[in-house]
Amino acid sequence: MELLCIRQWISGLLPTWLSAWCIKPVGGALVRQEPEYILLALMGSPLKKIMLCSSEKEIFSVEEQVMVQHSVIINNMIEDGSYNHEESKIPLDCVDSKTLKKVIDYCTHHTHHHNDNQEDLEAWDAQFLNVDSNGLYDLLMAANYLEIRNLLDLIYGTIKNMIKGKKIDEIRRIFNIKDHGFTPEEEEQNRKEYPHFY
Amino acid sequence: MERKHMGMNDILPLELIHRILLRVPAGDLFRLRFISKLWHSLISHPDFAESHYDLNSATSSHSHFFLLKDDTNAWCVQLDTLFDVAAAPTTHKEVSLPSREMPSFSCSLFRTMGSCRGFVLLDKKLDFLVIWNPLTGSSKTISYSHIKVPRYDLIRYGFGFDASRDDYLIVLSWHDDYNQHRLVCFSLRTNSWINLDASLPKYMSRWKYQLFGWFLHGAIHWLCYSRDYIDDGILIFDLKERSFSKISMPQQLVGDYPITFTLTILGGCLALYLYDHDNHKTEIWVMKEYKVPSSWILMYEIPYGNNVPICMSNGSDIIALNYTPRYYWLRFVKYNVSGELLNYSPRPLFESDYFYRSFCVYTESLFPFPGDNKDRDKKNKTGM
């Protein structure tokens, strides 16, 4: 029986108050989870996999639960039934293979290791984000597109730390901002008025 | 353009750069306006200061401690770096108070009268007030020497923001020569004094209340008390409605006259703290739910020395200013809910004298004075 039918059958059997007790993490927040999903998981249904397709037409197979927990976009696609497990793959035209692989890596690690202590997770995150700035931008845009809250917060925090306390010339170097857009007169005026910023 | 020649401004969409800037501390943002024209327009946008403040004011990491040193200088300490030993020498910086053209008639020092949305209110007794944003440097001096007060210690102050009118208000209350209770407020937007005597409730005339009020949820709060204890409580002046109301204090504190406890705001809640001399501990009561008197609870009992709570950190820890009589030291300490000492500042930051100087806690912001943006837009339209 197709998953949707099983769901409907089970939900018809369960009392409505039960849904108040069922919550799950989605995209870093906690949302109500239909109890039929919890039951299926408890019954030990095989780990469903979904197919993600990068902009370079490469297909990645990943556990459904992993992506559903982290990405609000993918969770919504699966919830409203627009994704058919047997046939379709989710096309992600904005994300290239290299970045998609990293994103899947992040979500998988955080799902399987969510019980680890804080320090280990933070160390893993730091290692994970040890990429060049271009890689960081790609990850940020992918996390934004897929709406992965905790990865977004992590990257925002990292970039914030790269900016904090640094002077203007250094920040321009780090983020490769070559054309600042000020006229030479404006730039000179700014440097004269606030020399300690530069 | 090849990828490796592109920078952040070329690769990331505007929305993401905007979101990154919203998370950068206000102190850095002031400088970041000069990174590029794009960043300048994002940061200077009229709505940016508001979004940034809303996102960050809840977190204690943006709280700064402001201590007056003398008539011309003050210290600003970023509270979340206080206990970071590695950053110790640079945690506090000295700032110059805005210069004033107005002559000073009294030789008393400045006092702080609270803060609101990144602005600090300074008072030169019975002479003039200064609203100052230490981060952006913008300041406004307001003379009030025309207000005749029979005794200097009878005037009370309040500073807050009226969101409905986008205006900052300074509220002054006193008893005049005929022992009539008076109330006025200065509106920053209209640059004028407004008489609010009509808003004073009849029952207020015999009350004393604390020197300055605290701004929270669109209203200014003062602790008020009287000899017969009947109407002790916290007085609330709503800046939008321009009307008064009152909420009661914890029952256990009623009857304590003269008052030994002080009103403050911790973690976005009204709080009362007092120093129990007999048991050498500081009690802190917090009103967990705003305007619900039954939600007052004794949340903290901090031992050893006179502790003045300054702000909440990590949701439940308290950062306090501690004066230890044994060592004559003035330091910052951090306690958790159980009264355990978590941390203390590496070395005494200021001389002990400064314990009695005026201080306040503020959150850095980029807010301009109301009406300033309009002037700027007008200038742009006329091509100035």
From TrEMBL, chain A:
Entry superkingdom: Eukaryota
Residue ranges constituting the SKP1 component POZ domain according to the UniProt record: 48-111
Pathway(s) the chain acts in: Protein modification; protein ubiquitination
Keyword Signal: yes
Assigned keywords, A-Z: Signal, Ubl conjugation pathway
GO BP: jasmonic acid mediated signaling pathway; protein ubiquitination; ubiquitin-dependent protein catabolic process
Gene3D superfamilies from the UniProt entry: Potassium Channel Kv1.1, Chain A
Domain SKP1 component dimerisation, residue spans: 150-195
Signal sequence annotation: 1-28
Transmembrane segments: none
InterPro entries listed in its UniProt record: SKP1 (IPR016897), SKP1-like (IPR001232), SKP1-like_dim_sf (IPR036296), SKP1/BTB/POZ_sf (IPR011333), Skp1_comp_dimer (IPR016072), Skp1_comp_POZ (IPR016073)
Family that this chain belongs to: Belongs to the SKP1 family.
Protein name: SKP1-like protein 11 isoform X4
Organism expressing this protein natively: Arachis duranensis
Lineage: Eukaryota, Viridiplantae, Streptophyta, Embryophyta, Tracheophyta
Gene symbol of the encoding locus: LOC107491915
TrEMBL record, chain B:
Domain of life, source organism: Eukaryota
Ranges of residues in domain F-box: 12-56
SUPFAM superfamilies linked to this entry: F-box domain
Keywords, in A-Z order: Membrane, Transmembrane, Transmembrane helix
Signal peptide annotation: none
Transmembrane portions of the chain: 257-275
Membrane as UniProt keyword: yes
NCBIfam families: F_box_assoc_1 (TIGR01640)
Name of the protein in its database record: F-box protein CPR1-like
Source organism per UniProt: Arachis duranensis
Protein encoded by which gene: LOC110280577
